[in-house]
Amino acid sequence: MISGFVKIRSLAFLAAFCLAVFGPFTGSARAGGLIRDAEIESLLRYYVTPIFRAAGLSPNAVKVYIIGEDSLNAFVAGGQRIFVHTGLLTRAKTPNELLGVLAHETGHIAGAHLATMGNAIDRMSTQNILSMLLAAAAVAGGAVAGNSAVASAGQGILAGGGEMARRNFLSYLRIQESAADQAGARYLTKTGQSVKGMLDLFGRMANQSLAASQYVDPYTRSHPMEFERIRNLERMAKESPHYNKKDKPALVARHKLMQAKLVGYMTPNQVSRKYPPGDNSTPAHYARAIAAFRSGRLQKSVDELNILVKSQPKNPYFWELTGEALLNAGQIKHSIRALKRAVKYAPNSGLIRITYAKALLAQGTKAGAKTALKELNRAQRSENHDPSLHHQKAFAYAKLGNIPRADLSTAESYLRSGNIKLAKKKAGQAKRKLKTGTPQWRRADDILNLKPPKS
């Protein structure tokens, strides 16, 4: 089930701006929050793994993150990391459309565009960089609003000192974007996928930004002009032998369930409009179950989920949500049974194991704490960076009377939440109680000696 939003700081504003799918005209620039969900993450991994391999990248080295942002966009930042907005996930009509965007972003990574862009930035003065960011914000804001005066003001900033350096830099970025399009098309063809989805989605985005584009000087853009880009994509798409290949029905079904989950979680008030009462499809029941869960109507949620688990008894994500709903309703034993099935059908999901451990700990028994600790240790193989995992481990150790390890796990949780001050405090408490020289003592000492990163 989708976990709550976690606010994130900007990883690299310039990198995110420059290497976004379609430049600044795709939606809001509000800061979003990271979303964790076992089902959606599993589907995205399934989508991108063949693409990464076709690009010569290790699937384990590239991470895909979901941002709760209702804009049609994705970007690369911070090295081998792809960030996908929920607006893209909900608006991609087919798996192939989403694959096209992921292939494009993979092209940025395989082409080392962030690293080379960093070199280009290093050659610019601080004042030039600042001017470009201010101008980009003004141009984007005026273009999105259809305000030619604001857009012209932004271009006026660009026309100031250092114009040639900035224009050369933006020209360099347009070349990168075109290269990423071409690379993405190659990866799709190499993996037997159609390029048509990329063409269709980028075409819709181009139509949306048509009105905004008339206010923008093409030489002050970080991305190619929309219809020039579409013409190039159309040529590449039609050259592919897989142009008319359709997505597999099972993949389309998973794609629709992902979209139903996001609608139910993020906009529960829109569920009845998107999935009317007469709609008895599996995605409709899923969206209603999640919307009911979100609004606290737990019995309604469980009733909808009962329909789903009967139709797909081996779907781990239906069992996962059933377990969460039952846990929130105080039906701990039934919750544990449901989550145990979820773990059975998705044994490699660390996120589901964390939820299972939470239900086991809710029993309030030492036996439950021991089992929970085993599950959390298994989950830690893939979820060591998740604060909630260490938070639950702290509960388990405390129930078992191991206060030093509970303090150390609490320190780990604070550390991964970015609260270094409290992490050091709890690590100090743990270190005083742990046996000197043990791995746990050394870990507490490491946390105590951490230096906060420079802003």
Describe this structure in words.
By secondary structure, the chain is mainly alpha-helical. The chain folds into 2 domains: 6-249, no CATH class; 267-347, Tetratricopeptide repeat domain (Serine Threonine Protein Phosphatase 5, Tetratricopeptide repeat, Alpha Horseshoe). Helices cover 66% and strands 4% of the residues. The protein contains 23 helices and 5 strands. It has helices at residues 13-18, 38-54, 86-91, 95-110, 113-122, 126-145, 148-158, 163-190, 196-208, 210-213, 226-239, 249-266, 271-274, 282-294, 298-311, 316-328, 332-345, 350-361, 366-383, 387-399, 403-416, 420-433, 439-448; strands at residues 6-7, 33-35, 63-67, 74-76, 81-85. A 5-stranded mixed beta sheet has the order 1-2-3-5-4. Helix 9 (196-208) runs antiparallel to helix 11 and helix 19 (366-383) packs antiparallel against helix 20. The longest helix is centred in the middle third of the chain and has 28 residues, at 163-190. The two termini are 33 Å apart.
Topology:
Blueprint: E1 6-7, H1 13-18, E2 33-35, H2 38-54, E3 63-67, E4 74-76, E5 81-85, H3 86-91, H4 95-110, H5 113-122, H6 126-145, H7 148-158, H8 163-190, H9 196-208, H10 210-213, H11 226-239, H12 249-266, H13 271-274, H14 282-294, H15 298-311, H16 316-328, H17 332-345, H18 350-361, H19 366-383, H20 387-399, H21 403-416, H22 420-433, H23 439-448
Parallel strand pairs: 3-5
Antiparallel strand pairs: 1-2, 2-3, 4-5
Helix pairs in contact: 2-4, 4-8, 4-9, 5-8, 6-7, 8-11, 9-11, 12-14, 14-15, 15-16, 16-17, 16-18, 17-18, 18-19, 18-20, 19-20, 20-21, 21-22, 21-23, 22-23
